[in-house]
Design brief:
Layout (H helix, E strand, L loop, with lengths): L8 E5 L4 H12 L3 E5 L13 H10 L2 E3 L6 H15 L4 E4 L14 H31 L11 E5 L2 H5 L5 H20 L6 E8 L3 H4 L6 H10 L4 H12 L10 E5 L2 E4 L15 H9 L9 H4 L7
Parallel strand pairs: 1-2, 1-4, 2-3, 4-5, 5-6, 6-7
Antiparallel strand pairs: 7-8
The structure holds nicotinamide-adenine-dinucleotide.
């Protein structure tokens, strides 16, 4: 126990397995009380095993919310559980995600919508519920003066920043989380609550499920399986700590011992349409066009572990 998060209450969605589990274990080791919100579903969101969340909660002295948080009512119930059991909510980690891949010309609308609901809408439902409580806590200066306990971390993916074949639903949701992160950071700035996005790389069942299509992807998978989930938890714990009070609205990444700060969408090049028409203006701006690399290609290097 480091005690740096002593007195604080965290809610981690998808906290029973993989990266979420590592985050729960780490936040609890740092002294936080943790609500593990996770129905223990398969990678595609189907099935369920409530015992995963209850067993972990018992082990780390937290509480289990072994139900889906992908609707406004249950998201509110999960936040109410944190407040009811432990007296507040200081750290929200929107980590839950499911995967339903398929080429954009084949993907079923129902699968797209299910992925958006779990990976993006649920983060909004929880943020909405938690920020209401956090604003009151800020006014009451919970944890001391000035208030500095409120933290929201949205677990995104480089798939949302770069894209990847067949991941229309997953990438759309993860890109959407960046917008949610920025606006939450802005809306909560007056309450001194920070909100950041983290794109992780870690060995979990998701990494294990990658089906390599070529040699480059075989190499990518082998490298990806070297990065431990505990490194992602280290970054989240740092963001939750007093040292990161002024860090907000950022898109970060972590892969083993590497941490990344991602550039965000900004105006890259401007041209004015003149006598040469649109074609001439395009000539001026095309140097700033983005390449078409996938995230697997962009990060096809050995992680530092
Ligand atoms: N593993 C990686 O390298 C990697 C890379 C990029 C992004 N991510 C992101 O990291 C996060 C964790 O991924 P992981 O690799 O640990 O995957 P995982 O499948 O092991 O864990 C996801 C967890 O979310 C839970 N979950 C799913 N639907 C839920 C719902 N409706 N309500 C509550 N919980 C729900 C699952 O039960 C599971 O425990 C995800 O957001 C994922 O997109 C992971």
């Amino acid at each position: 126990m480091t005690g740096t998060l002593s007195g604080r209450v965290a809610l981690v969605t998808g906290g029973a397995q993989g990266i979420g589990k590592a985050i729960c274990v780490r936040l609890a080791a740092d002294g936080a009380k943790v609500v593990v919100a996770d129905p223990g579903v398969g990678i595609d969101g189907r099935g369920g095993d409530a015992s995963l969340a209850t067993a972990l909660a018992e082990k780390i002295g937290g509480a289990a919310f072994p139900r889906s948080i992908a609707n406004p009512g249950t998201a509110e119930e999960a936040v109410a559980m944190a407040v009811g059991h432990f007296g507040g909510i200081d750290i929200l980690v929107n980590n839950a995600a499911i995967l339903r891949d398929g080429f954009v010309f084949k993907l079923e609308p129902a699968d797209f919508e299910d992925v958006l609901r779990v990976n993006l809408s649920a983060a909004f439902y929880l943020t909405r519920a938690a920020t209401g409580v956090m604003r009151d806590q800020a006014k009451a200066e919970r944890g001391g003066k000035p208030y500095g306990w409120g933290r929201i971390v949205n677990v995104t993916s480089t798939a949302g920043l770069y894209g990847n074949f067949g991941q229309a639903a997953y990438a759309s949701a993860k890109a959407g989380l960046i917008g949610l992160t920025r606006v939450t950071a802005m809306d909560m700035a007056r309450s001194l609550v920070t909100c950041n996005a983290v794109a992780p790389f870690a060995a979990t069942r998701i990494t294990d499920s990658i089906k390599p299509q070529n040699d480059a992807q075989i190499a990518y998978k082998a490298r990806a399986l070297k990065a431990p989930a505990s490194a992602v938890a280290d970054l989240v714990a740092h963001l939750a700590s007093p040292a990161a009070q002024s860090v907000t609205g950022q898109v970060l990444g972590v892969r083993g011992k590497e941490v990344f700060a991602f550039a965000q969408m900004r105006l890259a090049k401007r041209a004015v349409v003149g006598s040469g028409g649109m074609a001439a203006a395009f000539e001026e701006i095309k140097g700033a066009f983005a390449d078409q690399s996938t995230d697997l290609e962009a990060f096809n290097t050995d992680p530092v572990v």
